[in-house]
Amino acid sequence: MPGRESMTLLIQQRQVRVPSGRLTQVCFNSLHPYTIYITDCIGSHFTLIRDDINPIILAIYVVVAVMLVISGVSESTCGFLLKGFSLVAELCLSQTEALTDQSRRLLRGIGTDSRHVIRSLKLTPDARSYVCCPKCFACYPQTSDDSYLDKCIYKKTPSSKECGRKLHKVQKIKQTEHSVPMRRFIYHEFKEWLGEILCRPGMEDMLDHDVSPNKDGTMQDIWDALGLHDLVGADGKPFMC
Question: 64-73, 114-123, 192-201: which range is least confident on average?
Fold first, then answer.
């Protein structure tokens, strides 16, 4: 994983060393500057979860998260695991006479909701939900179960008729009827996605990798294309250097 104090960005193949937590403006070209807030991109990914959660609870959460996300265990089963682990931890502490009222309250706060585990471990991506029309694909923000219209009101032109396609349907879950979107579109926030990419192990080495064409003319990927290295920017300098 890249160092905590700095992150290497390679824009236009020009290396820029950016200390974490500072505002940096990086230009893809002189006409379209793009401002990157490094803290917004990668700051949350360097936050140590173990600083906020008791080690015993953290161990329980990690096991349950692996079972839920990787092994595909149901949420109800994960709720049973949470309850079981909390009881085991309470028994272990009672045997060592380390079980205090504070520890007991802490363990009981684990609960049985696996969604709380995912949120505590910060595994939930920063995404926006939109209700998508199944006919014209117009999107409407979904902030709650009833935050969107019943029918699509999109018009191709100001004088056209509204689409009018129904945006929700009734779904029965455990003998209870629920109104759910006909189709949803999930948008992953770009800064969040960029932060996850930059913090992956080995990413800094890839950014530092020399992209000059192979001297023997062999083309292994797009960076070996001669056309890319012949391009010049608005300043008259090579776009790739």
Answer: 192-201
Q: How far apart are CA 115 and CA 120, in angstroms?
A: 9
Q: Say what angle helices 101-108 and 75-95 make with each other, to 10 degrees.
A: 170
Please, what's the largest Cα pairwise distance for the chain? 77
Residue type, 68: L
- Return the structure tokens found at 225: 């294309």
pTM of the entire structure? 0.51
Beta-bridged to residue 132, according to DSSP, are 139
What is the rounded distance in angstroms from the CA atom of residue 121 to the CA atom of residue 107?
Answer: 17
pLDDT digits (tens, 9 = 90+) for 195-209: 878 877 888 788 777
For the chain, where are the alpha helices, taking DSSP H only? 38-42, 55-69, 75-95, 101-108, 114-120, 190-198, 203-208, 226-230
The dihedrals phi and psi of 221, each to the nearest 5 degrees, come to -155, -175
Distance of CA 29 to the CA centre of its chain: 28
Q: How many whole angstroms separate alpha carbon 166 and alpha carbon 77?
A: 36
pLDDT band for position 11 (cuts 50, 70, 90):
very low
* The pLDDT value given to residue 22: 36
> Which residue do the tokens 């684990």 mark?
110
CA 53 to chain centre: 21
Please give the C-alpha separations between residue 98 and each of 26, 57, 77, 85, 103, in angstroms, as whole numbers.
54, 15, 29, 17, 8
